User: Fold these one by one.
Assistant:
Number 1:
Amino acid sequence: MSAIADNWRTLAALAAPAECAAVVKANAYGLGIDRVAPALWKAGARTFFVAHFKEALELRALLPEAVIYVLNGLLPETAADHAAARLRPVLGSVPEITEWSDFCRDQGADLPTALHVDTGMNRLGLSVDEAVQLAGTRRMLGFTPSLVMSHLACADTPGHALTARQRAVFADVIRRFRGVPGSLANSAGTLLGRDFRFELVRPGIFLYGGVAITGVPPLRPVVRLEAKIIQVSSVAAGETVGYGAAERLKRPSRLATVSIGYADGLFRAAGSSDLAKGVEAVVAGRRCHLVGRVSMDLATLDITDLPEGAVQRGDVAVFLGDGISVDDLAARSGTIGYEVLTSLGARYARRYIGG
């Protein structure tokens, strides 16, 4: 928790004078919103983003005074529910805006909300033409937007032409909503300079020790992932290991079978074969490769290069920590750090330290 708080403070200092919010969707990227959100509030975060209404309700119970935006917008006939919990839906379509506007008029209340403009992601949000038209007629709305936002598609790809184009489009749109704060930058976007930060930045993966782009400021690792070794064995050269006989041992080997598998979020693609080495874990202070496929509940490590007797049943293998980052594990698994964190399984015993 101290690492998460420090990461937020680092990004807040970088983003100033823009406000630094915190994205805590997907159960705080799989790490536990009930522990992460209060730690971020204590560090100084006051504005939070989640994806779903249910997540927002959980967060409201944890942080009664926080500003909470719901990124996935307003489902039909839920305006009253959002208002009752003092939530701010991110409106990205004309029907959503109409429903929220009608509700505000009926209640005689100007309830804060965000407008989402699609500047090139082509996923959610008003078209630029719709946003421009809305800006010209916003006096007719039943509410005053508290934020206008968009989302960068390629901020983690340095020099991508779409990033500069999105910033230019967004700058033109936000200019038309005079007096309304703007938000464009996610974690990677926060590093792209003052021109991308506008009035509010929305870091997510950086808070949790993942790196969405090279050249980040010093951020602390957050998660340590250990699993128990449940058997140590010796296997002859030429034997295969695991389902599908995907990897044949080239030497007499000592193997450690670990109580972790794809049911726990260690991806099947993290396994090893005769063609490619899989992920590593640290055992007795040394990195050891997986051997063979990852199965539902088990994975096997090659500990041959460790001294005889250095590994015993009940010892731990470290899959995150001791120099192995979320992004290291992701790269070896053919995925991204976001998926590693959000896939951490329910069977782990979780211990929260610090904060």
Note: The mean pLDDT is 96.
Number 2:
Amino acid sequence: MKQRIITGVVAAALFLPIVYYSGIPLVLLTYFLATIGLYELYKMKNLNLFSGHGLLSVLFLWALLFPEKYMHVLDTFYYSKTELCIVFILLLLAYTVITKNRFTFEDVSFTILSALYVGIGFYFFFETRVDGGLVYILYSLFMIWATDSGAYFIGKALGKRKLWPEISPNKTVEGSIGGVVCAVVVAVLFVLFTDIKGSIIGITVILSVFGQIGDLVESAFKRHFNVKDSGKILPGHGGILDRFDSLLFVWPLLHLFHLW
């Protein structure tokens, strides 16, 4: 627990100032976190990111992450983000021929879906900060922290019925409901003390549920690949995906709900 607290404090001290400042530092942070997330997925499947197909997968991810704010840079080359992504997908498929099927169609499918999973989530991390402002980033962080903490502590105290034992045997229905309740409390506080819209209270229930689904998705990955944590970059916490799994589902939904 002590190690978790120290890591959390240090990470927050590095993370929050960059989020507050935004701009290019936030873009670089987004690219860094997403690339580490892709590396963790590659490692789970025993694929080497430091390879030809690994380089293509990183470039595909980076194309996905390219912020809307800087799209004019691509316009000067007469290419869109979609066109770049198509090129990298075709190159990944061609790589199966170059390697004589040592890098298989299944590996291509895993690579593309992994890049989409990580890339879409972190892309909307940056877009949330730009379009929604700092308040929506803080809301998403505190809402998910409240969901996780509420689910853990209420599950420990009151949990009896298993939520999804095949995926995550320690999670309970009571804990899940408790997490949603704690998230709603956070939403109420944000409505009272910030200029965030009142409609967020109802939407928080959906976001909290999908945040928990994001957590279960990551648990399903780890169970499938028989690993305990996605990585070791955050001592006491695991990897980047272990910390951002819920938020990778929440940030895109914030945009889909058109909250700003």
Note: The chain has a mean pLDDT of 93.
Number 3:
Amino acid sequence: MNRTLTDKFGRVHDYLRISLTDRCNLRCVYCMPEEGMQFMENDKHLTFDEIEAVVRMAAKLGVRRLRLTGGEPLVRPNVEKLVSRLSAIPGIEDIALTTNGIFLAQKAEKLRKAGVTRVNISLDSMKQERFAKITRGGDVSKVLAGLEASFRVGFNPIKLNVVLMNRFNDDEVDDFLRMTLEREVHVRFIEYMPIGHDDNGWRDLYLPLEYVKERCEAMGMTPEPTQSVFGNGPAEYFRLPGAKGSFGLIHPVSDHFCESCNRLRLTADGNIKPCLFWQDEFNVRKYIGDEQALEDLFFRALDIKPESHEMAKVLFGEELSHEPTVRRMSQIGG
């Protein structure tokens, strides 16, 4: 009888997020420190053969959906070749990509043909000067070109990830909402999270997502709840009257979504993380080639997965039940 990835809280895990690299061509303020980071050596990254071996095992245990992340996954050479290999694994039904969009215009067609069905594009501002400040040097026109390429090659759905930051990009909420009126795009506003931060600076940028609904009302439009857009994410979706697209709210801090969590994470250096926020992780590398040992490792990771990540306790300065990770988002896989 096949084992399935069900944890002690009854949550079935059919979704694996795979970080292909901790490297990135941008330096976003919420992802990396200003001084930059020491990236791992290339030989520390899981090889494509190793990633395929892990996914084959995961698929036997009921994983059906994959998401490729980073760092920035498109800085890793020949990503489309890995996609082709993963899409051919029995049981894998869907492969998505999270990207900053800088290289997406030139790679979209190859990725689509290889088996990527949908994309999430990080876009925290549509204003070049502000985008450059958030990303520490990025060119927003390249991201917008990647968005257009995504429409052209037929990725569906297309989602935009917008990390909402108090007194930084909150004045652009109206512009993103208007975009959903005109195009079949799904904008997800995400609360600023205290991942890998050893100080309280993130609190100054934190803004509860009720602000987005307030902006809808200020625009004279009442958003209606809508069915979740296809995918694995935790967003609560809404649609403005007459809109072609939708917007979603992802509030891991103020209203966590842990009770419906269905995901495990595989870091670029080969660690299974049962929870984004806690430090617990299990390295797969020495078990690759031993199918039973690798299977057992998945269940060891799942066995210690907590009921909640407790980020709200960080916001209010309360004591935590576990040790938070010291890894930055780029080191874990966003």
Note: The domain at 15-332 is CATH 3.20.20.70 (TIM Barrel).
